[in-house]
Amino acid sequence: MRNPLSLIVGTVGVLALLGILGLAFPESVAGDLAGIVFSTSTATSTARLAAPIVLAGLGGIFAEKSGVINIGLEGLLIISAFVSVYAASVVEIGSTVFGVPALAVGFLAGIAASTLLSAVFAVVCIEFKADQIIAGLAIWLIALGLAPFMSTVFFGGVNTPNLGASVGWRYSAALVLLATVGSWWLLNQTAFGKHLRAAGENPKALDTVGVSVSKVRYAGVLLSGVLSGVGGSALALSIGQFVGSGETMVQGKGFIAIVVYLFGNYNPIGALGAGTLFAGLQALQTRLQQLGYGIPSSLVETIPYVAVIVVLAFVGRTQIPEAAGEHYETEE
Amino acid sequence: MSDSDPDTDRSPSVLARLVAPFVDRSVAERLVISVAAIFLSILVGFAIVLVSGRIAECSTAAWTLPFTGIGFCYDPVEVYVVLFNGALGYPFAVGDPGLFNPGWSPFNLSFGLTLSETTLLIFTGLSVAVAFRAGLFNIGTQGQLVVGALATALSVLALVPLLPAGRVAGVVLIVVGTVAGAVAGGLWGAIPGALKAYADANEVITTIMLNFVAANVAYVLVLEVFRAEGSSVVATGYVPEYAQLRPWLFPASSDFALIALLVGVGFIGALYYFVEHTSLGYDLRTSGVQAAAAEYGGVNAKLTTVRAMTLSGALGGVGGAVWVLMSEGRWMASIPDLGFDGITVSILAGNNPIGVLPAAFLFGILKGGALEIGFRTDVPTELVAVLRGLIILFVAMPEFFRMIGRYAGVGGGGVAASTEPDETGGDGGETDA
Fold first, then answer.
1. Nearest CA of chain A to the CA of B54: how many Å?
2. Is A39 part of any domain?
3. Which of B38, B212, B367 to probe the A interface (max A CBs under 10 A)?
4. Where are the membrane-spanning stretches (chain A) (predicted)?
5. Residue A51, min C-alpha distance to chain B (Å)
């Protein structure tokens, strides 16, 4: 289960079996299911839903590889989702700022907000040696309070009005692929990637060769902020609205992202595969509701969450970086 | 804190000095940090109110920055005055002559609401604290509360026709309902405990996922099976009045029963005794601080993990029972975030059962005050949810306050010298995310 390859092979296998069953018995449940899985609308909504999960997961890899467990990814997604919609609505759809269209401004603002919040997290964890898990929870809870608060201030309710414009699924898919390849390259092919892994595995060695451990860790956490910002903005702008009721529209995707990169064994390609799988489950869930098997929609909604628990139970202890979660004191 | 001279470098801050004779230094330090964290988050909240008041649109400025003439839509001073004064039912006469309102009585509606929140937060705070002491992050108190609350409502409603209505039946129903809530919450909490112990699944993630599952499954159960006839919302029928915890001394609409608060205080005492003075509690604490050492010392770490999560879940379930029997009178779909508030309460309390009482009262004031903010100002009540996160963030960074302490020349020596392992630390939680 730890090998991302086995995951991909397994997924393809299940899909193939489903396809064959669906073709052989088009009238059965399998036939319906195959119809859903291979329909265009499921594919496009998978691409849309995969963006926040995979991108936050990639961000989580950078943070954790550098030695800082970022459990606040959910908060970064929430804040960027809100700010992207807010900024786009301030610019107003149809107008531009310095030639940049409103949706793009929203995107950039969302990324900036998430990066800023991740910077707060980085300072708290690295400078002030906070417990990373508790600080991460705080980042999540701050965003969970702040986004609906600001939405109420600006729009008079926890849900923003719809922008009336949205980003197409192709952009989401392209961003995900680009970020995955880019992350893989950065982690495995550059000196920075080497430093990042050393900061998480053996910070003392990194320190000995004269590279600042805290600088590398700052970079890792900030990267998680940038990537989560892209994911959160993509999520909200692909719908054109921020929903702030309950657990907000992010609905635990930041936590699913953590499971995704654990499942993918810290490999960006593995995270892409696992993230697409979970996003596919969520997309499937939406379609199943529309089809109506007499199963209450709320029950179907639990499928991705149960899947996360099952996966986590099977994955168990992963190859977590040796020094992740620990503070590092420079020895001068 | 700048009033002491540099010579008193090794003395802790004023507050710590006051309490030092009664508690050991690490508790004193934690107390100082908790107070400072609240103060700091209120300060940041002040800034947030100002900034959002600058961006929000209004016809006349509610507050003007001195000397600059820059107007703001919200008055942060007013917000906090309303928050703290309002939570207590306006005992202080602000703007009027005299310090106190002559007509004030402690048994007013607002203070009742505050104490009602306090009571609920005691249970959720204890739930999070017990898990923390065992080195486990139970973020799932919310789900355990939802499940426990449903079990309470359903068990009481099922037993009502079997018993003759009356005071005796009421007591029986309340006890049975609370036990049912505890059992259901405990079982729900045992799931992530077992997953952690036997499959190494990180409890932070599993408990958060189980929150979603609990909310959805409970919703479906009530929607499809147990929904009260003619109810416009997704809710069970009301528990009969004689089986509810009714307000006493306080106005009926305050939803505050003194007996529930007393039971909560009893729970605090019992839990303190359990954690500090029983062998099971000792196992729990040692596996929280040093899991490997505990195992070496003969503690069954896996079983301890399951036990701690079950106990934690049961406390969350009791919180749900009290919510049904005291606050709402029935189970309904829009359950407040009491479980998440419990995280703040526990962290504020240094995960110490005794500390849960003042922490829950303080957070109860914030929650009670939020209602007043909603009535009297334009500032969204979500402000308190922001403060909830900020408080956790600041308590999580003791080093920040130590730095300030060193910088100010106060509290540095005593505080910085403590190098003992941080018990809040989730050694158990962070090494296997």
1. 10
2. no
3. B212
4. 46-63, 75-98, 104-126, 133-156, 168-187, 221-243, 255-281, 293-315
5. 20
Q: Is residue A49 part of a domain?
A: no
Type of residue found at A291: L
Chosen for mutation from A117, A155, A281, A298 (greatest number of chain B CBs closer than 10 Å) is A298
Write the CATH number for A183: 1.10.3470
Burial (0-12, 13-18, 19+ Cβ within 10 Å), A13 = exposed
B106-126 confidence digits (pLDDT tens): 888 889 999 999 999 999 999
- Residues of B113-131 as b/e, b for ≥16 C-beta within 10 angstroms? bbbbbbbbbbbbbbbbbbb
Per the CB < 8 Å rule, is A145 touching B205?
no
Instruction: Tell me, yes or no, whether A153 lies in a domain.
Output: yes
pLDDT number for residue B74: 82
Q: Taking all residues of chain B, what is their mean pLDDT, rounded to a whole number?
A: 83
- DSSP notation for B7-44: GGTTSPPHHHHHHTTTS-HHHHHHHHHHHHHHHHHHHH
Of A24-28, A106-110, B234-238, B300-304, the one with minimum mean pLDDT is A24-28
Q: Is 90 exceeded by the pLDDT of residue A9?
A: no
Contact criterion met (CB < 8 Å) for A154 and B216: no
Interface with chain B: mutation pick from A70, A116, A131, A327, highest number of B CBs within 10 Å: A131
pLDDT band at B26; cut points 50, 70, 90: confident
Give B390's contacts in chain A (Cβ within 8 Å). 138, 142
For A296, which of B210, B220, B433 is closest by C-beta distance? B220
Instruction: Please give the radius of gyration of chain A, using alpha carbons only, rounded to the nearest integer.
Output: 20
pLDDT tens, position by position, B29-68:
888 888 888 889 989 988 888 888 877 767 667 777 776 6
Give tens-digit pLDDT for B160-173.
Answer: 999 888 889 999 99
A251 contacts A53 by C-beta, under 8 angstroms: no
CA A193 to chain centroid, in Å, comes to: 20
Total domains present in chain A: 1
How sure is the predictor about B174, in pLDDT bands with cuts at 50, 70 and 90?
very high
Name the residue range of residue A289's domain: 4-21+54-298+307-315
Instruction: Give the residue-averaged pLDDT of B223-228.
Output: 88
Q: Touching check for A140 and chain B: CB below 8 Å?
A: yes
How far apart CA A284 and CA A46 sit, in angstroms, is 8
- Domains of chain B are 8-75+395-424 (no CATH), 110-364 (1.10.3470)
Residue A103 lies in a domain: yes
pLDDT tens readout for residues B363-400: 999 999 888 888 888 888 888 889 989 999 998 888 88
Partner B, chain A 44-73, Cβ-Cβ below 8 Å: 64, 69, 71
Query: Which pLDDT does position B230 carry in this prediction?
Result: 83
Q: Tell me, what's the pLDDT at B414?
A: 43
Whether B164 and A281 have beta carbons less than 8 Å apart is answered as: no
